[in-house]
From TrEMBL:
Protein name, as recorded: Cytochrome c biogenesis heme-transporting ATPase CcmA
TM annotation in the entry: none
Cross-referenced PROSITE patterns: ABC_TRANSPORTER_1 (PS00211), ABC_TRANSPORTER_2 (PS50893)
Ranges where the ABC transporter domain occurs: 17-233
Stored InterPro entries: AAA+_ATPase, ABC_transporter-like_ATP-bd, ABC_transporter-like_CS, ABC_transptr_haem_export_CcmA, P-loop_NTPase
NCBIfam families: ccmA (TIGR01189), PRK13538.1 (NF010061)
Length: 233
């Protein structure tokens, strides 16, 4: 594994992410409510739950891309420490080459995007030979690897929010992603990872968060007018 550069430690002993009383409503349906979570440095959370239970919705709320019905989330550190969110869709441009498409994603996220960085990151996910190949010519697993190459670029965010990142990966790809997660945790980072199968990561041992356990029972959905979430840096 490459040299380990630690993330800046939060000023206090506060967790990297603190969630309190979070609720999510989609249309008339309350998906979950009363969700509390403390995500500490070095922790990897396996976010599980049945189809439609709200895993993607939760990650989008945490990433600031959707609004919670109730509750609060607080990040340690300043605004520059916002999470790295990898959506289930790869968001690659079919007509661009793999390296160009990765550079586009990195630029959007404010990460380094020069040619050498992209080449190194693609090599890390086993795509050194495909770096100039048009995205449309890549297999699903190779496209997934291009998107995941963002995780091999430093500096990165201390918290990763990964929506079904193992989809379409073969055993070698799963091993590489496990290594990236383990390295991230070893640097003091943390991640929330959705998956329909248990994570294979051996260390650190993933913490399971089952959305079925925070499904609302007999609670009415919060009114639309109450749709507000307190977000503190
Ligand atoms: N834009 C939307 N408008 C209305 N309802 C939506 C929208 N997006 C998702 N939903 C609903 O919210 C619920 C939760 O969806 P979400 O994608 O968060 O679940 P999930 O746990 O990630 O599911 P899966 O395991 O299938 O990926 C689903 O019932 C879905 O139909």
């Amino acid at each position: 594994m490459a040299s380990v550069v630690p993330y800046p430690a939060p000023a206090s002993a506060a967790p990297l992410l603190q969630v309190r009383g979070l609720a999510c409503r989609r249309g008339e349906r309350l998906l979950f409510a009363g969700l509390d979570l403390d995500l500490g440095a070095g922790e990897i959370v396996w976010l599980r739950g049945p189809n439609g239970s709200g895993k993607t919705s939760l990650l989008r709320i945490l990433a600031g891309l959707a609004t919670a019905a109730e509750g609060s989330r607080r990040w340690a550190g300043d605004a520059l420490q916002r999470p790295l969110y990898l959506a289930h869709a790869n968001a690659l441009k079919d007509d661009l080459g793999a390296a160009e498409s990765l550079a586009f994603l990195l630029r959007l996220a404010g990460q380094p995007a020069d040619a050498a960085t992209c080449a190194t990151a693609l090599g890390r996910v086993g795509l050194a030979r495909q770096r100039d190949a048009a995205v449309r010519t890549l297999s699903q697993g190779q496209r997934r690897r291009v998107a995941l190459a963002r995780l091999a670029v430093e500096p990165s965010a201390p918290v990763w929010l990964l929506d079904e990142p193992f989809d379409a990966l073969d055993a070698a790809g799963i091993g590489t992603l496990d290594e990236l997660l383990a390295g991230h945790a070893a640097r003091g980072g943390a991640a929330i990872v959705t998956s329909h199968v248990p994570l294979t990561l051996a260390a650190p041992e993933p913490i399971t968060l089952d959305l079925a356990s925070v499904a609302p029972r007999g609670r009415p959905a919060p009114a639309a007018a109450a749709a507000a979430v307190a977000c503190e840096a």
